[in-house]
Structure prediction request, 322 residues.
Amino acid sequence: MGQNWVPHLWGLLTPGFTLACLVLGEWWMAAPVVLLLLVYPLLEALIGQSAETDPLQEGRAHDIIVHLHAVLVPVVLITLLWRVSLDGLTLPVALGVLSAGLSNGASGIVSAHELGHRRPKSKSWWTARLSLFSVLYLHFTTEHNHTHHRHWARDVDPTSSPWGRSIYSHVLQTVPRQVKGAFRARPVDTRRSLLLEATFLLILGLFGWAYLVAYVGQALVAIYLLEFVNYLQHHGLRRGDDERPNATHAWESRHRLSRWTLMELPLHPSHHLKASTPYQRLDVHDEAPQLPFGYYGMFWIALLPPLFSTLMKRQHALILPS
Prediction:
């Protein structure tokens, strides 16, 4: 199947299924966790890879899909809070918090990343802001666009992880460093964003601690997914301060399921070489290092630092000249 808008509809299953399970309640709320963390890694391996792209395709349908992803983030969040109002913080609801966080990370932040590269103050840009506000990460667009895209694969970039750093250490370091980076790039905007988020959490807490716990809980899960992706995309790849970036400085994955459900995010080298390129027009680069598995499979491997480090170094050695 070629790269057109139909396969990318698959990604909408994530927020759609999560919404349905939150509405059904009880143990149904665990089903998105099973789908995303157990079924998808297996399915990703079975479906395999594809290098087929179509960089000249028309993008209207793709544009609708990415906006649907972004709009469904606050819808999932509101539905979660509604479920909390009915049931309180029971074990099934806690699984619903996890499911909402996985959905808002896999679907929402990916779409916010895409729309955050659109023209500032445009409707698409504001839609990205709404998605990021839902997961308490409003500073992401500033840090990503002004710091990461300037310094990717350099030591100064807080989102690019060196060889040997575990996902656990990376998350603890990168989150505060990114907030600092956003302050350096846009201090007034970043201060307003953090103040807005803090004010909203205070007001939400006045309605009940259960709402606050659910909101913050799903946000933490979504943020972890984002930082896992950041951790993965440039791990161990380094360029000097005066070295021009190229496709060898970002990991690529051609696994179909990751590409279709995550809006071509795994074609990351192409995105960095021209950040304004819409996701449906990204291309593959044969010189880029290839991840051993897709993003869903790599999620589990990253949790085991020795295994992750061994696999990544072995995979990277495949592109080195003999």
Observations:
- Residues 5-317 form one domain.
